[in-house]
Amino acid sequence: MRDIFKVKTNPAACGENIVLGDCYRISVLTDGLIRLEYQENGHFEDRPSQMAWNRDFKPTRYRVIKTEDGIEILTKRIHLIYDEKKFSKNGLSIQVIGNLSAYHSIWHYSEEIHDLKGTARTLDEVDGSTELEHGVLSRFGYSVLDDGKSMLLTEDGWVEPRCGGGEDIYFFGYGHDYLECLKDFYYLSGRSPMLPRFALGNWWSRYYKYTEESYLALMDRFEREDIPFTVAVIDMDWHLVDIDPKYGSGWTGYTWNRSLFPDPKRFLQTLHKRGMRTTLNVHPAEGVRGFEEMYPDMARALGVDWEKEDPINFDIADPAFLEAYLEYAHHPYEEMGVDFWWVDWQQGNNSKIPGLDPLWLLNHYHFLDSKREGKRPMTFSRYAGPGSHRYPVGFSGDTITTWESLDFQPYFTANASNIGYGWWSHDIGGHMRGYKDDEMEARWAQFGVFSPIMRLHSSCSEFNGKEPWRFKKESEAVMGEFLRLRHRLMPYLYTMNYRASESAEPMIMPMYYKHPEAAEAYEAANQYYFGSEMIVAPITAPRIRKINEAKVCAWIPEGIYIDFFNHMVYEGGRVMELYRPLETIPVLVKAGGVIPMTDSTGAADVTKNPETLRIRIFGGADGAFTLYEDDNETCDYEQGVCVTTEMKLDWEGEKQTFTIDSARGALELIPEKRNYVLEFAAVTDAECHVSLNGGETACRRSYDEDRRTLTLEIDQVSTAETLVVSFETNMKLSENPVEKLAFEFLNQAEIEFETKEMLFRRIRVGKSLKVFLSELQAMEIDGEIKGALVEILTA
Questions:
Q1: % pLDDT > 70, the chain
Q2: How confident is the model at residue 774 (pLDDT cuts 50, 70, 90)?
Q3: From CA 142, how far away is CA 162, in angstroms rounded?
Q4: What is the mean pLDDT of residues 291-300?
Q5: CA quadruple 49, 54, 59, 65: dihedral, nearest 10
Q6: Which residues are CB-neighbours of 389 under 8 A, at least 6 positions away?
Q7: What does the alpha-carbon distance between residue 437 and residue 429 come to, in Å, rounded to a whole number?
Q8: What predicted TM-score, i.e. pTM, was given to this entire model?
Q9: Rounded Cα–Cα distance for residues 709 and 701 (Å)
Q10: Burial of 768: CB neighbours in 10 Å, binned 0-12, 13-18, 19+
Q11: What are the residues whose beta carbons fall under 8 Å from the beta carbon of 704, sequence distance 6 or more?
Q12: CA distance 630 to 193
């Protein structure tokens, strides 16, 4: 095996963390993570497995108590009782310490696990919800992963099955310290790597028989429409599909269809010149057959009779096949310009080695192979069990095009973080079957922008394309604006990309990660944290008739939150129904939130560190953000080759300031000078002055009354200098323009004019909120009208 397949692991546990018996070994890896092994022959496994790569946690404080019946082990988190015999329900139990539940926080060996679940292998054929596999988090404080049947990694980079059976179980008993649990899981299993910057932009994907000419013409149309993409996904018709039946089906293929793409290298290079990267779809299950261009050379290398055209069977469990598969079927195309592969494995988890999942091997070796020339590795494939987070990006499968599918995806995406799987890519807009619904398409695109990966996708049906101009004008406009927004968010997204890798905090996290004791956090299943600054509650249902707005029931945690789009200020600590027109969804930024953005949207611009930063600062509290940047392409970030820029809002001090510190690190990676556009959102107007390294500098200042936003523009600021905005009079959080918002809502609502006039008249009278709400409750009008007005009046 090549050296690139030899991954660095630390699989042996610290000796101080081990309690050893004749047939059992208990490794107290941390005070909440326990490895339980039982082998009749007393031989235990110290090699890395598919899931567990690093067991060398620091020495852990614990006590062992010998009893007449066996042993007890205590840490600050768990109490283990074991009879030192073969694991059994009566002989092995672990209780999580703490007031978590009356009687649910104790696990007896072999009992069913009631955790918060993780994710699933695929959403193929799923219309709505599906069952999820286990994760490592639970409201009861514990979960269990059985690693006893997974493959082992050998020193030469290959894998082999375990011998002798036995037990190998990991008990996670962290109570409600969810982030700590996830951090230790990432260490055990290997951290999630950073994605290259281009992966965070928009992906264009469609199962469709494009030609080089038609594909590039489509990219030209997108450019004219100002609809940006950074990734071109070429589905299976790039290769020969209509083949002689003697070879089987054309589903698997590796030879360019030159009637469609006469000069593949030219095609790929043209996309590169646009700033786009390309992935090709492969279905590898049928191996390489006699009609393929690389077949003769690959057959000779593997000793297959090429003159008789004997097929080269897919056998990922054979190292020789693996090497030839990569060398002959993939490397030449990468030299042409293919940037990464879409490994579309749909054939289950059987191989000639019992227990070996071909999908896991494909993900593992494709990912490692993709970094052989120094670039940041990446693959695109389905989930293959715990540890799959090491091989981003995930492909969730062929989504059915229905509201029910859309409604499941926010929960499904956030919940995957419970098993560390933070980089799902869905078929945004739906792949197949279902029905056309223009409003649903716009809502799906909005969710996609606030997803880990934004990839529009659809089937080969002539009626199922996701080009925005195929939809009604209102949906077309929404899709275009949100696709551009995705690219404007790139500085924020890329920083969260780094945070996910370095700090073990996925970009998308369920609400209970930060609010584990709040019952509402568990009930807000379709709502999630999007990075450090935002809470997103996607709308996954149609608009309500007559009021022309859709609603979502959201939980707003304690504190002050501000809507990213309309700057409505919300007081938290409650559940609310949030109403939105088609143009927006609820995206709430915590008071003091700082969100770095860019004005550029083109692929060539957003895939490099920007020359202009538009920084949106949300008032109401102190806040800080550290912008992360690197070379966007290589693994140098693993050695700390990067640039960080700290930003800080001092809102509550005697004198308000906003500071952008001098950049630190490998400054050659970022522009020497930058333009800054600072937008202070949801604030009152205030005078200010700007200084660079203590000396005053010029800025352009404006205040938008309608958006309650103060904007400062400062040009050509050296990134090596510190910029400080000092406010001469303190800003205040702006009040919501209730009368204006109520008028706008009533004006567009398709209801009786008399009702509109009556409601608006009573709002303008200015009665106390308590009085007006009691009147509103007593009125015989539609409940959704009341609901929308209640949100405006009580935010």
A1: 100
A2: confident
A3: 27
A4: 98
A5: -20
A6: 186, 189, 192, 419, 420, 421, 422, 423
A7: 10
A8: 0.97
A9: 11
A10: exposed
A11: 710, 711
A12: 14
CA separation for the pair 468, 230 (Å, rounded) = 17
Residue 395 contacts residue 201 (beta carbons within 8 Å): no
Give dist(CA 768, CA 92) in Å, integer. 62
Q: Give the total residue count for the chain.
A: 795
Amino acid at 616: R
Please give the C-alpha separations between residue 82 and each of 74, 401, 450, in angstroms, as whole numbers. 12, 51, 47
Spatial distance between the Cα atoms of 759 and 742, rounded to a whole number of angstroms: 9
Residues 750-770 have a mean pLDDT of 90
On the question of pLDDT at 99 being above 90, the answer is no
Q: What percent of the chain has pLDDT over 90?
A: 94
Spell out the long-range contacts of 127-134 with Cβ–Cβ below 8 A and sequence spacing 24 or more: 127/400, 127/402, 127/404, 127/405, 127/433, 127/434, 128/402, 128/404, 128/405, 128/407, 128/408, 129/404, 129/408, 129/412, 130/408, 132/412, 132/415, 133/385, 133/419, 134/419
**Cα 658 from Cα 92, distance rounded (Å):** 56
Position 565, amino acid: F
Q: What are phi and psi of 302, to 5 degrees?
A: -100, 0
Residues forming a β-bridge with 713: 677, 700
33 three-class SS: strand
Six token digits for residue 165: 């059976």
Q: Which residues pair with 589 in a beta bridge?
A: 534, 562
> Which residues, other chains included, contact 187 with Cβ-Cβ below 8 Å and sequence gap of 6+?
54, 57, 504
Structure tokens at 353: 């080695």
Q: Please give the C-alpha separations between residue 356 and each of 98, 151, 384, 686, in angstroms, as whole numbers.
A: 39, 7, 11, 65
What is the spatial distance between Cα 631 and Cα 641, in angstroms, rounded to a whole number? 8
Helix axes 438-449, 473-488, angle to 10 degrees: 10
Q: Is the pLDDT of residue 631 over 90?
A: yes
Instruction: Please give the radius of gyration of the chain, using alpha carbons only, rounded to the nearest integer.
Output: 28
**Which parts of 518-557 are beta strand (E)?**
528-530, 534-536, 550-556
Across all residues in the chain, what is the average pLDDT? 96
Q: Are residues 54 and 9 in contact, defined by beta-carbon separation less than 8 angstroms?
A: yes
Task: Give the H/E segment covering residue 322.
Answer: helix 319-329
